[in-house]
Amino acid sequence: MGITELAVLRWAHIIAMVYWLGGEWGVFQTSYNVINRKLSMDERRRHMEATYRIDILARTGIVLLLPLGLHMGHFWGVQPYGGDALVVMWLFFAGWLSLCWSAFIYRETDRGIRLTIWDERVRFVVIPILLISSISSLFGHGPFNAGDMQKWYSLKILIYSLLLVIGLKLRFVMREWTDMFRILAAGPNVEVESKLEHSLRGARMMAYVYWMGIGSVAFLGATKFI
């Protein structure tokens, strides 16, 4: 049968999912040392740097999963927009991904924080569109086809959009870390240390829900049982 476009898209989708799940686990584990007061500030900053470097892979996977999924959905007949619509979609996501990487490159600077804020604003647009589109499709109003054995796609988009909400909150947390580490670099600050630990505890609780959601998205895509 040879290598088909759909097979390549499926391969890329799997790789993106692996980077998403694996990256989030790496950030979770590294974060323990970010708040460890027993470590020197230089050591904690090294762990913070490792967190950023791992997170950008997870963030790349998150962004790429959507255009890959929409492209494959067209082949499967559950996403009716192809041709020029797919080209426009890929251009948009290429721009979004460039924004994510620019924010990473200029991390821990005022410019990097501004770019991160713009990345968050993109999510404020994408998330409502996905939520409305997926719920509308599940009720039979489109834009996705959701007939018999097609609802898995809209349900997958719905869960993905909810995961983006959690991811957005985690982005807020990492931006707070950047600001707090700037303060800690000037000297010990008990109040900021406590805030950092509280922030991380909340992020860990969200991470558990995040992983369950990622597993659910992967299960729906693999089984297509509904």
Fold and architecture overview:
- This protein has 226 residues and is an all-alpha fold.
- The mean pLDDT is 91.
- It has helices at 5-34, 41-76, 84-105, 110-138, 151-184, 190-223.
- The two termini are 28 Å apart.
- The chain has one domain (5-223).
- Helix 2 packs antiparallel against helix 5, helix 3 packs antiparallel against helix 4 and helix 5 packs antiparallel against helix 6.
- The chain contains six helices and no strands.
Main beta sheet: strand number and arrangement? none
Oligomer: single chain
Helix and strand sequence: HHHHHH
Q: How many H/I helical runs? A: 6
Distance between the termini: 28 Å
Fraction of helical residues: over 70%
Number of strands: 0
* Whole-number tally of structural domains: 1
Structural class label:
mainly alpha
- Calculate Rg over CA atoms: 19 Å
Categorize the overall geometry: elongated
β-strand percent reads under 5%
| Average pLDDT | 91
Contiguous runs where pLDDT drops below 50 for at least 5 residues:
none
